[in-house]
Write a structure and sequence with these properties.
Layout (H helix, E strand, L loop, with lengths): L10 E5 L9 H7 L6 E7 L11 H5 L3 E9 L7 E5 L2 E6 L5 H18 L5 E7 L1 H4 L5 H17 L3 E6 L6 H7 L5 E5 L4 E4 L1
Parallel strand pairs: 1-7, 1-8, 2-3, 2-6, 3-5, 6-7
Antiparallel strand pairs: 4-5, 8-9
Length: 195
C-alpha cells in the first residue's frame, strides 16, 4: 500500500485479487497501521494459520503482543478453543453460524479490553466476505457485518474485511460498501483508496 494514510477510519473494505495472486501485503500493512502495542484479532473462513502475520514485525517495526483467531470450520459442531504457539484459536462452526462467530469475537474483545493499556492498538482482519457469502445470504451477511463493524468501532479497533471483487457482481459490492469508512482496492499495478 506504500504508506497510504487512511486517517482515523475504523472499518475498511479491502478489495483484492484472488488468493493465487495474493501476497498478504495490504493485509499486513493495514494490521501494522498502529504505533503501540498491537493485538490482532482475525476471523478466517480460509486459513486458520494466518501465515502472513509472520511479516508483521518487519512491516510494523514491533512485535505483536497477542493474536487471537476465530476459525470458521464447516465441520465444527461446537466451539473449541486451543492455544498454538501463543496464538489463541477459537473454532466455530458450521460456516453459517454467524451467532457463534459474533460471540467469539465479542469474547476476544471483552477479554482484551480488560487487559488493554492506554495506547494499545486492536486491529481486526475478516478473511473473507467472499468466503462467508458462500454460506449465508447477502441479507444475513449485511446484518451481521453491520453489528460487527459497530462493535469494533466502539472498541476502538481498526478492522479490514477482505473481498475478491472478481467473484461478485457490482450490486453485491455496492450493498456492503456503506458499512465501511473507506474502501481500498488492490490490483496488480495499483492501490486505490476512497471513502
Amino acid at each position: 500500500m506504500g504508506g497510504t494514510d487512511l486517517g482515523s477510519v475504523s472499518n475498511v473494505l479491502l478489495l483484492e485479487p484472488g488468493r493465487r495472486e495474493w501476497d498478504g501485503g495490504a493485509c499486513v500493512e493495514l494490521l501494522a497501521s498502529g504505533s503501540g502495542t498491537t493485538r490482532v484479532l482475525a476471523v478466517t473462513y480460509t486459513d486458520p494459520s494466518i501465515a502472513h502475520l509472520d511479516e508483521f514485525e518487519s512491516v510494523a517495526g514491533h512485535r505483536l503482543a497477542e493474536v487471537s483467531i476465530v476459525s470458521v470450520d464447516e465441520t465444527a459442531t461446537e466451539l473449541r478453543t486451543e492455544t498454538v504457539d501463543g496464538t489463541t484459536i477459537r473454532t466455530v462452526g458450521p460456516a453459517d453460524n454467524l451467532t457463534g462467530v459474533a460471540a467469539a469475537v465479542s469474547e476476544c474483545i471483552g477479554a482484551w479490553n480488560e487487559r488493554a493499556a492506554p495506547g494499545d492498538d486492536l486491529v481486526f482482519c475478516f478473511d473473507s466476505l467472499t468466503a462467508m457469502l458462500q454460506s449465508v445470504s447477502r441479507e444475513r451477511a449485511f446484518r451481521f457485518l453491520h453489528v460487527l463493524t459497530r462493535r469494533l468501532e466502539q472498541a476502538g479497533a481498526v478492522g479490514h474485511y477482505h473481498v475478491e471483487p472478481s467473484r461478485h457482481d457490482e450490486q453485491t459490492i455496492a450493498t456492503f460498501s456503506p458499512l465501511f469508512d473507506a474502501t481500498v482496492e488492490v490490483t496488480a499495478d495499483d492501490v486505490e483508496v476512497w471513502s
